[in-house]
Amino acid sequence: MSQFAIVCSGQGAQTPDLFTSFPFTEKGFALRQRILDARCVGSDVNDWMADPAREPSAIFQNHFSQPLICLYQAMVWAEIADLLPAPAMIAGYSLGELTAYFCAGALSPEDVVRLAGIRAREMDAAGPGGKLIAVTGLSPSMASSLDGALLAIVVSDDHCVIGCSATRAESLARELGAAGARDVVILAVSVASHTALLDAAVEPFRSALQQVGWFDLKTPVLAGISAVKVMRREQMEQVLPEQIHHTVRWDRVQQRIQESGCRVVLELGPGNQLSHMAMARGIEARSVDEFRSVEGIGEWVRATLARLG
């Protein structure tokens, strides 16, 4: 069994220079053009890509960030997939779980980007005015026990993400600090993902998911809400929409990767938060953001696997 795993980043580390920060070649740019020609993103998103400097903050708006991050990840995967050994499993953090199904061969890149736009639209409609707060130094049970706090993501025994209404965010952040949290950061997002505030988004997204084409999975995908291995369409149609309003158990996903014998992890980006989490567990991990060439990514993965035996 392979000792290699892929993890797909979620929202948070994207920047206006998203499509110039990675060393894309013609392969990646050709896929981007194909997806844009298929009208998988809205005209306003397409216009933004032509001149990100005109409104740089748009990249943090759900309507822009979700399809653009999935587009970026699809381009990265097109560049590196043939340079890598077959992964044992693929996992995605929040939004990244959607891209994971493309990397595993189940969904087309066009459908992934289109679905990301639908996901963003339904989440915005269901829960405008939400916020997420990253909390370290406090147990998830303690952090979520405060009034108005909803447990969105569990990363470890003392690291979690809390969702709440936008009007509650500032006061809740202060209360989390007073309760003993070491670090409290209100994230640059506009909806409280993975909480009951987004209940209304789940079934519309599931309906859209059921209408796209499906290909047999080449690699199992770990469900974000449970770390269960997904290999069938009906499983995906159940668990992928559910993570919109249920707690993501990234702690269990990380544990499943480690217990499965994976010793090398590559994060698809943008950002390197997931690779740092893996490194904290003693796993060799890097993000594609750290490399200057696509060839260097493949060389690092193969050399590290060879060194670890």
Low-confidence stretches: none
Rg is 18 Å
Helix-strand makeup class = alpha/beta
The residue-averaged pLDDT reads: 95
Main beta sheet, described? Answer: 6 strands, mixed
Global shape: globular
Structure description:
50% of the residues are buried. This protein folds into two domains: 4-127 and 195-308, Malonyl-Coenzyme A Acyl Carrier Protein, domain 2 (3-Layer(aba) Sandwich); 130-186, 2-Layer Sandwich (Alpha-Beta Plaits), CATH 3.30.70.250. The strands form two sheets. It has a six-stranded mixed beta sheet with strand order 8-7-2-1-10-11, sandwiched between helices. It has a five-stranded mixed beta sheet with strand order 6-3-5-4-9. Helix 11 (273-280) links the parallel strand 10 (264-267) and strand 11 (284-287). The protein has helices at residues 26-37, 43-50, 62-80, 96-103, 109-126, 140-143, 169-178, 199-210, 233-242, 250-259, 273-280, 294-308, and strands spanning 4-8, 89-92, 130-136, 150-156, 159-165, 183-186, 221-222, 229-230, 248-249, 264-267, 284-287. By secondary structure, the protein is of the alpha/beta class. Keywords: Transferase. GO terms for molecular function: [acyl-carrier-protein] S-malonyltransferase activity. One of its GO terms (cellular component) is cytosol. It comes from Terrimicrobium sacchariphilum.
